[in-house]
Amino acid sequence: MLLERAELPPLDAVSHLCGLQAQEPQEPFAGLWSRLRGFQPDALSDLLTGRQVVRTHLMRRTVHLVTAADVLAWRARHNAMLRQRVLGVYRRELAGVDLDELAAAGREVLADGEPRSMAQLARAVADRWPEPGTRPLGEMLVAGVLPMVQLPPRGVWRQKAGVRNALVSSWVGREIDPLPTEDGSDPVGQELVRRYLAAYGPAATADVRAWSGLAGLPGAVAALRGELVTFRDERGRELLDLPDAPRPDPETPAPVRFLPAFDNAILGYDDRTRIIDDTDRGLSVAGARVVLVDGRVAATWDVETEAGTEAGTAAGTGSGKGARESKDTVVVTPLRAFSRSERAEVAEEGEQLAVFLSDGESARVRVGREV
Questions:
Q1: Confidence (pTM)
Q2: What does each C-alpha distance from 7 to 35, 38, 39 come to in angstroms?
Q3: What is the Cβ-side half-sphere exposure of residue 187, based on CA atoms within 13 angstroms?
Q4: Of the candidates 57, 174, 195, 323, which lies 20 to 30 Å from 339 by C-alpha distance?
């Protein structure tokens, strides 16, 4: 949906994109604005408060905004990975903790239906496991052993709120789907691969692994091979795709697009050189918001407010000169020299983004010089 904005309801867009990475709560709004024609931010807020989309730890153990249907269908397939990723950080602290017992204790605390912060939940079980400390216990509870969601108003348009966690079952109304009986074909993994390729293919199995955090889904890929088509990239890697997926001609012009921090159009690949130069790869994990010019990362962007750089945005992606404007300004910092036409197109799209982000109060954009 980056070559041409789609006429699609926000719920369908979130589903098609397999969710949007969302640890920065306001970023998904810019991600959908760049992809949907006439996108209204309140429509996404309403989906969140209406429990049709949720904020939850899922792919790569990062917070994603996904449909309620997808978290119910996919969470069990991610359980083992989520536990292992938390243990990768806190293995020593959690060495003496039975994780199944910890999950049961957490569920007991949450049985009253009251949402809790991570610290509150950890403190409620800390008398039983005093040695690890509240941070390791809390992270394992909210991101590892319990299927949980972060409740609104966190993630609602233009609202700031702390994290309050609740069980998926209490918020959505039912428990997550159990994994099917294992026969090696990994049916949930097959659906993940299909959905990923529909949004991001052609892609290698390493790309699927990088996006999901799961170990390559070999059983799923093997079971799907008969219904997929294959290609070779410039490095000789095998790429998989759905047979009826769109594959535009390489000469198709790609319009300027402003992407939010941590967009899966970049992070959803192992080989990110397809969209960002190796020299700029670090920007993709540092939380920089980026600008696509002709389909590749060519600049970063940020917002300067009356009080300075917008709170909660990535450091280092603004002008770096401490400039102040009388109104909010979208500031673009090129990573390479722009032609006159490219600069004009970036400025035009930046103006429209400024209008969107300011609710129509500003159309200011400043395109700097190459860093």
A1: 0.91
A2: 9, 8, 9
A3: 8
A4: 323
